[in-house]
Amino acid sequence: MKLPAFAFAVTSLLTATVSAQWDHLQQLLTNHGKTDEAPVLESGVVYPVDTRNWRTLLQHTDVDWLVLCTTGEENCPGCAIYEQAFNDAVQLLKDKKDIYFARIDCDKQALLCSVFSSWGARVYHVTHTSKPSKGFPGMTETSTNLHPIPFHRPGTETEAPPPSGSEEEDPKDKSSTPAKRPPPPPDAHWLAEVVREGRWREMQEWTGLNQPFEGAAKEIVYTWWWIVSLFSGVPPMAMMIGIGLLSRYVTSRFTGRRAPPKRQEGAAAAPGTAAGAARKRQ
């Protein structure tokens, strides 16, 4: 029984992932814990992150990062002000040597933004902690921590004015619907304060199975979104044709139902003609 193409693709990806991790471990052991792939980092520079270097930059280094996930105006109207706030925060922190900056373009790196659960604009603070290894006594393990950071100072959500032309909720009128206030504008000074004063520790850390770096299901999540990205790039017409061919194959393969051969009229009339000719000869 042949393995379906879908299962073969998943198996190949998992094998490649394990192989890549083993190659990285071998490189660490050979180069005494250093990697040749990691660039020489400079403060105040925003480094682009993609599916090839995201682990090298964000996980396999021991420095802190402030990472922006952003989307263009075509797919996210209004996201430009969030990116501008991030860039302003970078300028405010350019003299700080222990923080580096990265940017993920979700229009080009949809797979990576899906792994980070970032659609629109979002900021993460990335740190690394070392702890004694459980499997290898006398050695340490480094874990990568993620803290989502809001673009505005917590507690300012109610300070934004209601939309123009809307009315405030009347407490006596139970049928009135309160006007939904827009989110506060992004604050670059708040983002800089989060880094300078270490207020990222006050934010809830992203933990759990789907954490991109340390989650137990991180490879499954990555594989899932990789498959989704493959299907999203297929034209709708090709998808419909493929589904039709697949359903036809499944029907014929597992049900065994095939259309009977069409009976030809000439072949059916031949026995009668032969019988009449025999009677005439008699």
From TrEMBL:
<keyword id="KW-1133">Transmembrane helix</keyword>
<feature type="region of interest" description="Disordered">
    <location>
        <begin position="257"/>
        <end position="282"/>
    </location>
</feature>
<dbReference type="InterPro" id="IPR036249">
    <property type="entry name" value="Thioredoxin-like_sf"/>
</dbReference>
<feature type="compositionally biased region" description="Low complexity">
    <location>
        <begin position="266"/>
        <end position="282"/>
    </location>
</feature>
<feature type="signal peptide">
    <location>
        <begin position="1"/>
        <end position="20"/>
    </location>
</feature>
<keyword id="KW-0812">Transmembrane</keyword>
<feature type="region of interest" description="Disordered">
    <location>
        <begin position="130"/>
        <end position="189"/>
    </location>
</feature>
<keyword id="KW-0472">Membrane</keyword>
<protein>
    <recommendedName>
        <fullName>Thioredoxin domain-containing protein</fullName>
    </recommendedName>
</protein>
<keyword id="KW-0732">Signal</keyword>
<feature type="transmembrane region" description="Helical">
    <location>
        <begin position="224"/>
        <end position="247"/>
    </location>
</feature>
